[in-house]
Amino acid sequence: MNAFTDRDAGRPSLTLRCAFCLKLNRLDPERAAERPACGECGRPFLLDRPVRVAGEDLARVLEDSTLPVLVDFYADWCGPCKAMAPVLDEFARARTGDLLVAKLDTDAAPEAARRHGIQAIPTLILFRDGAEAGRITGAASVTELERLTAGD
What we know:
Blueprint: H1 3-9, E1 14-17, E2 24-27, E3 51-52, H2 55-64, E4 69-74, H3 79-94, E5 100-105, H4 110-115, E6 123-128, E7 131-137, H5 142-148
Parallel strand pairs: 3-5, 4-5
Antiparallel strand pairs: 1-2, 4-6, 6-7
């Protein structure tokens, strides 16, 4: 079944790559609290925290997700990015099953960063139905993230 069929059926879904075996999996975000497992290796997807997404997978994640996706474009060496980590952890926990919080390392995926017009990090972009719906550049508070995602 493809993403369009899932959307037409009204069933929430998202596609993520397993961090362990690298197999793409279609997941039901309504079952996020049950820690859905990879269909290949059986390891859990932890959707109650930010999920790392590779540059080559970002388009697929955004296109296939029926949930809004908040992407943190960051780099490991960036101080403000590190300061954002606990804020994103808290936000992801609070919105589990309603919104996917993803992280994309701009050093590892410069083409994806260019494609989305990232000129400074951290930059957080909210995507709905694969399209950009809002953006914050610089470190943000939980309140600012709530404002950005209002209506989701």
